[in-house]
Specification:
- The protein contains six helices and no strands.
- The chain is mostly helical.
- The longest helix has 30 residues, at 21-50.
- The protein is elongated, with a radius of gyration of 20 Å.
- The model has no long low-confidence stretch (mean pLDDT 86).
């Protein structure tokens, strides 16, 4: 039961999907873009602070083919985050939903 809740509510964010598919896509892009960049930064910090600069691991990730993997990873998750933020701005200001219109809320009061 705990793993099912963890998977559906935290990893897949199904409570947001129940509200709107567009909102869910934007949320997933921002959420996983941020988590990917956070993990990427953590790995780079670990490599720079705890792995000696002359070691094989350091050379692989800074000079070898591991550099390409880390660069691609950072670019992918950074793009996801950027696309999610752009979609959120577009959704907020161009594709206004009824609940986002503050003037409509004032009319109800």
């Amino acid at each position: 039961m705990v793993f099912k809740t963890l998977f559906y509510e935290i990893i897949l964010q199904l409570q947001v999907l129940k509200q709107s598919k567009i909102r869910w896509i934007v949320h997933i892009f921002i959420f996983y873009g941020f988590l990917g960049l956070l993990l990427h930064t953590g790995i780079l910090a670990f490599l720079s602070h705890f792995i000696p600069s002359g070691s094989i691991i350091s050379k692989y990730f800074y000079l070898g083919s591991g550099k390409l993997v880390l660069d691609l990873w950072g670019d992918l998750f950074g793009s996801l985050l950027l696309i999610g933020v752009i979609f959120a701005i577009l959704r907020r200001y161009l594709l206004k939903a009824e609940q986002l219109d503050t003037i409509a809320l004032i009319r109800l009061l």
